[in-house]
């Protein structure tokens, strides 16, 4: 195992958006493709249920009801039902919202933070510069950055645990393109690495179930085909990236992990293929 403590893992999604495949995969189709808003439920043996992102919630539609934020859902139309929300799926699986002690936020795009208000006792774990990159933006620039501040709870700062301020570093196995990771809980169970490029300060997460190792890579790519076939997104996608150079670097890292460690299950947040292969459809 890459990590030291095995956890339970359910890979889920809460809604999806439509977007031309071409922008996310060079040489792809101009037709709109379906991109699920993926998230993960991690069952830790000591800390209980932990979320990695949340997908969409009904608040997305409330926050995008008026200009300029309404441009967000016009450009990427969203399909969603309340039954798909993270809080609803967890409750169906016997997990109360108050039971979730931690929500790990890969980055602050609306399709990743849409449901955080539903977990009133959770502490939020993220890389400080990820929040700093969006927290002071005005309405127009925030919309361009994919950030809807109303999705965050009013006491977000009080409940925050930025990884670079609270977590120690732990070395990773030799051969991985990352030499060390943030040990989020201090026990080697959740190991986060910075994967900036798509968004500043975006993190991916290594977890192990005992049977398989996973890398939850957020939006480093939008589909497994990208790293498997070495197909970066269309150059136009760079207009919404925080750094094209960092994106290319982390794209290469993902390719290296795929080639050197083929048994690691790489899970992009918006990949239908990964969701079909390893997603559970319900809380397990």
Largest sheet: 7 strands, mixed
* Whole-angstrom Rg: 17 Å
Number of domains: 1
The count of helical stretches stands at 11
Structural class: alpha/beta
The CATH superfamily is identified as Ribonuclease Z/Hydroxyacylglutathione hydrolase-like
Low-confidence stretches: none
* Strand neighbour order, sheet with most strands: 4-1-2-3-5-6-7
Terminal CA distance: 21 Å
Summarize the helix and strand pattern as letters.
EHEEHHEHEHEHHEHEEEEEHHEH
Mean pLDDT: 94
Helix coverage percent of residues? 25-40%
CATH architecture: 4-Layer Sandwich
Quick one: CATH class? Alpha Beta
The CATH topology annotation reads as Metallo-beta-lactamase, Chain A
- Strand content bin: 25-35%
Count of individual beta strands? 13
The 3D shape can be described as globular
GO molecular function: hydrolase activity; metal ion binding
Function: Counteracts the endogenous Pycsar antiviral defense system. Phosphodiesterase that enables metal-dependent hydrolysis of host cyclic nucleotide Pycsar defense signals such as cCMP and cUMP.
Family: Belongs to the metallo-beta-lactamase superfamily.
Cofactor: Zn(2+)
């Amino acid at each position: 195992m890459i990590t030291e403590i095995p956890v339970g893992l359910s890979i889920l999604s809460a809604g999806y958006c439509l977007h031309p495949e071409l922008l996310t995969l060079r040489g792809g189709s101009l037709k709109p493709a379906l991109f699920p808003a993926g998230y993960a439920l991690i069952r830790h043996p000591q800390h209980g249920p932990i979320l990695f992102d949340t997908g969409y919630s009904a608040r997305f539609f409330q926050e995008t009801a008026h200009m300029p934020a309404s441009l967000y859902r016009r450009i990427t139309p969203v399909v969603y039902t309340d039954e798909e929300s993270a809080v609803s799926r967890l409750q169906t699986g016997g997990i109360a919202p108050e039971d979730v002690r931690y929500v790990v936020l890969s980055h602050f795009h609306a399709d990743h933070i849409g449901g955080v208000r539903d977990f009133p006792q959770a502490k939020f774990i993220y890389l400080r510069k990820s929040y700093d990159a969006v927290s002071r933006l005005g309405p127009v620039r925030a919309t361009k950055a994919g950030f809807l501040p109303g999705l965050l709870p009013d006491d977000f700062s009080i409940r925050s645990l930025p990884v670079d301020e609270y977590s120690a570093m732990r070395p990773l196995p030799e051969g991985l393109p990352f030499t060390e990771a943030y040990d989020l809980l201090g026990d080697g169970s959740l190991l986060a690495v910075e994967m900036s490029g798509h968004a500043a300060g975006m993190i991916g997460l290594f977890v192990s179930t005992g049977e398989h190792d996973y890398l939850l890579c957020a939006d480093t790519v939008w589909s497994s085909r990208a790293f498997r076939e070495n197909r970066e997104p269309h150059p136009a996608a760079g207009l919404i990236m925080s750094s094209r150079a960092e994106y290319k670097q982390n794209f290469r890292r993902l390719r290296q992990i795929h080639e050197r460690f083929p048994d690691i299950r790489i899970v992009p947040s918006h990949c239908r293929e990964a969701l079909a292969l390893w997603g559970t459809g319900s809380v397990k």
